[in-house]
Design goal:
Layout (H helix, E strand, L loop, with lengths): L1 H32 L10 E7 L5 H18 L2 E7 L3 H9 L5 E4 L1 H11 L2 E6 L10 E6 L14 E4 L5 H14 L4 H4 L2 E4 L3 H9 L5 E5 H11 L6 E6 L7 E4 L5 H18 L4 E3 L18 H7 L2
Parallel strand pairs: 1-2, 1-3, 6-7, 6-8
Antiparallel strand pairs: 3-10, 4-10, 4-11, 5-8, 5-9
Length: 303
């Protein structure tokens, strides 16, 4: 009887041992049979600073299809921010509250040296880079045929940080006029945008404006005015295009994906034109019709 009890106890102990060992083995290999954890989708927010050429509503309509397409095809979420001035956009970039802004090539070179900003893309034009020019414009009905006829009139520029709306025309006028522009014109003011400059001209709130020829063409279409209502007093040679740039906290992999995505989606949208960045597109000097250059004086001309 005692022998049977011992055998029975031994069998039970062995069974318990086998169960415990099997459980331990199963616990050890269980993670191998579990379904892989679903990784949470990660996105990268890019804050894009936009200086509306015409209006915030129009810029929003142009950029939102691109932002939506980027969100659907990449991990990048484009967050547009509409700046009131070029200076505001620059401050956002240098303080890194904005990730991408579009600025003129002279400002880009300055900030590249002082803040280490990085080029991303270059603005494109339907007529190619040679079509980007500055024009001095007046109303056709006024008794003004040439720049020399503008003495005592009111001049409106766009923004002290604008290449086509200030740097180029200011350089030209200082070389062309016998006195400083501030003495030649009865007043020199800034409109804030190319579109507003045209509005001021058509409303007779100013007499002469300096704007980019492409923004002028678009504004004339928006306002429904024929080209016969204005007179072009002067046209510059080709002006280097603006540069889309970013700060160094945006990683190279994100910069590359963003550039590729913008090139693809901008082309599909047909509203925004961008081209790959190359140094040749931001020449050191802007050659004016009289043979002078704006590059040498651009930095000094911008307050």
């Amino acid at each position: 009887m005692m022998l049977k009890e011992r055998k029975r106890a031994g069998a039970i102990g062995f069974a318990v041992f086998v169960v415990l060992e099997t459980t331990a083995v199963l616990i050890g290999i269980w993670p191998l049979f579990r379904a892989p954890a679903v990784q949470q989708e990660t996105t990268t927010d890019i804050r894009l600073g936009i200086m509306p050429a015409h209006s915030e509503a129009r810029s929003h309509a142009q950029w939102m299809p691109i932002a939506t397409a980027l969100a659907e095809t990449t991990d990048i979420r484009l967050r547009p921010y509409y700046a009131n001035t070029i200076e505001e956009a620059i401050t956002g970039l240098t303080s890194k509250s904005l990730d991408v802004v579009k600025i003129n090539p002279f400002l880009f070179r300055e900030l590249e040296g002082t803040h280490g900003i990085i080029p991303l893309l270059t603005e494109g034009f339907r007529g190619g880079p040679e079509s980007n020019r500055t024009v001095l414009v007046c109303r056709r009905g006024d008794a003004v045929q040439y720049v020399e006829d503008t003495r005592g009139l009111r001049l409106t520029l766009v923004d002290p940080r604008s290449l086509t709306g200030f740097v180029v025309p200011d350089t030209y006028l200082r070389g062309k006029l016998p006195v400083e522009p501030e003495e030649w014109f009865s007043s020199v003011t800034f409109s804030g945008t190319h579109h507003q400059a045209l509005i001021n001209l058509l409303r007779h709130e100013t007499d002469v404006i300096s704007v980019g020829n492409e923004p002028l063409r678009q504004s004339m279409q928006i306002e429904g005015h024929a080209s016969e209502t204005i007179r072009i007093l002067w046209t510059s040679h080709a002006v280097p295009a603006d540069v889309y740039c970013t700060h160094r906290d945006v990683s190279k992999s994100v910069r590359d994906r963003l550039a590729r995505g913008l090139l693809t989606q901008a082309e599909k949208s047909g509203h925004i034109i961008v081209v790959p960045y190359t140094k040749s597109l931001i020449a050191a000097d802007v050659v004016l019709n009289d043979g002078s250059t704006a590059g040498a004086t651009a930095k000094n001309a911008v307050p």
